[in-house]
Amino acid sequence: MAAARELFTERGYQGVPADEIVRAAGVTRGALYHHYSDKQGLFRAVFEQLEAEIMTEVESATKDAPNLPGGLLSALQAFLDSCERADIRRICLMDAPAVLGWTTWREIEAEHGLGLVTTLIERAVAEGLLKPVPVPVLAQLVVSAVSEAALMITNADNPAQARSDAEQVLALWLLGLLAD
To answer: In DSSP terms, which residues pair with 130 in a beta bridge?
Structure first.
């Protein structure tokens, strides 16, 4: 997985033949197919590993914040920070939707991020920070909006400006949900 991750980051999924991955990893092609159904299966495993890393970083940011509102903003910033990494940008944001298909890509993203977002929103509603809302719906919309922001930033001509704009809009949107 480490060899594939490095190669996928450098040249993308399409730019790396399976034979090159096994050579870089120092294993046989049979070993690759013993652990993964094919190159796409290996890519999916790398993608899921990266998604887990992102969620660890985001969860850590929320725990380090002094309060829940700060934790929500820290979570957003941590997610967008992680999306600036070359491996996340290339594998998770550029290649994964095409390689795995949009539906599978979104399902895996939700599998890793939706639980944390749901927990944070439930806590915010319980503490009276957010207006009472259907939490599962809001959680899915937040995951979708933040993922879309990451895609916009990744594909922007000026990523720094796109990130600033996305953070501003997302923060204003979430502020609109605050309880009076």
So the answer is: 178
Q: Can you tell me the distance from the alpha carbon of 107 to that of 113, in angstroms, rounded to the nearest whole number?
A: 10
The candidate with the shortest Cα–Cα distance to 133, out of 117, 122, 149, is 122
Segment 94-115 mean pLDDT: 91
Q: What are phi and psi of 114, to 5 degrees?
A: -65, -40
Distance of alpha carbon 62 from alpha carbon 70, whole angstroms? 8
What pLDDT was estimated at residue 176? Answer: 86
- Point out which residues pair with 178 in neighbouring strands: 130
pLDDT of residue 126: 94
Task: Please tell me the total count of domains within the chain.
Answer: 1
Structural domain harbouring 82: 46-175
Residues 6+ apart with CB under 8 A from 50: 5, 87, 88, 91, 92
162: its two tokens: 């796109």
Structural domain includes residue 115: yes
Rounded to whole angstroms, the Cα distance separating 91 from 88 reads 5
Residue 26 within any structural domain of the chain: no
How far apart (Å, rounded) are the C-alpha atoms in residues 109 and 121? 17
Domain of residue 60, CATH code: 1.10.357.10
Q: Is residue 114 part of a domain?
A: yes
Residue 57 included in any domain: yes
